[in-house]
Hints:
Blueprint (H helix, E strand, L loop, with lengths): L6 E3 L6 E3 L4 E6 L2 E4 L6 E4 L1 H4 L2 H10 L4 H15 L4
Antiparallel strand pairs: 1-2, 3-4, 3-5
Bound molecules: zinc ion.
Amino acid sequence: MKNRHPIRMCIACRSRYPQNTLIRLKQVAKEIIAFDGTGRSFYLCRECLENPRKVEGLSKRFRQDKEKFVVFLRALATETNPCD
Ligand SMILES: [Zn+2]
């Protein structure tokens, strides 16, 4: 039995990683939220998640309020990996 994860690309740095190491998000109307199983999703790697310049770039790209977006990503990162 293989236990491999598909390789996905981070939208911020375009690096490729196994899917399980990436944060999965989606856009609903004008808001970026955690992927909930439906619709189109995209991925963000942990390096970008922790890179303020990348996060700022993304908040502009998706027209998110920067402060809120930072808080949202931080919460998501913590939630996904509580031991980190
Ligand atoms: Zn990245």
